[in-house]
Amino acid sequence: MSYAKIGFEDSVNTQLQYLIELQKFDLRIFQILDQQKKLPGLLQIAEAPLCELQGKLQVLKNEGESLAKQRRNAELELGAQEAQLQKVRARLSELKTNKEYQAHLFEIELARKKKDTFEEAVLALMERADQNSQAIKELEPQIEEAQKVYDLEKAKLETQAADLQQEITELEQRQQQLSQSLEHTLLSRYNRLKNLRKGFAVAEIRDGSCIGCRLQLPPQLVADVRRGDQLLDCSYCRRILYMANQLEGESDQ
Ligand SMILES: [Zn+2]
Predict the structure, then answer these.
(1) Looking at residue 210, what DSSP letter applies?
(2) For 189-232, what is each residue's pLDDT tens digit?
(3) Cα–Cα distance between 78 and 31 in angstroms, integer?
(4) How many domains does the chain have?
(5) What is the dihedral of CA 215, 221, 226, 231, to 10 degrees?
(6) Has residue 6 been placed in a domain?
(7) CATH code at 118?
(8) pLDDT per residue over 80-111, tens digit each?
(9) CA 249 – ligand 1 centroid, Å
């Protein structure tokens, strides 16, 4: 337990007042740092609906390209089959016997059926391409809307980030000024603690307990703090202790 007496010009209570003031800045700074850490996550959340819609659009566009390619191939096959059918038909006049004729009619029928199948395939692909274009057309205004919502939210978060940064800068300036009034070793002690305790380095004693760690303090320690001639640590969390009534007299002056 560090019970070292601190040698400085100001009274213990005045130094304590400075520390408590400094702590107000630090608590706010730590709060801001937490808020700043949350900003990228908030930006991601805001962007999620837009990303989802853009993902859907990409899937549809890929599908559209694939359909167009399939259609080009099916049309080529259809063209080839039409040519084949014409060729088979043209040979009809060269036939001599009835048997040959019958066999050839069968061949024509087969070629025709094959051509019909290709034709149906082309039509089916055209229909799917139409549905695909329609789905893209319906998605586009949704994306536009989602983009607007995201842009607004992003601008809001950017403003918030800038405001927080500005506030930190101001707090650090005030902190800097106030630090000059503090005794050097006390300031180092405070700074070490504040980093360990997320800005909460100075704790009040209430009902015999440290409000930093909520543990009951030895009565002798409470009595020593009440006397107010030195700055003492909590035996458990090492926060610098004070009593509220100890400061009241000072703040009236
Ligand atoms: Zn404590």
Answers:
(1) E
(2) 999 999 999 899 999 999 999 999 999 999 999 999 998 888 99
(3) 70
(4) 1
(5) -100
(6) no
(7) 1.10.287.1490
(8) 999 999 998 888 888 888 888 888 999 999 99
(9) 24
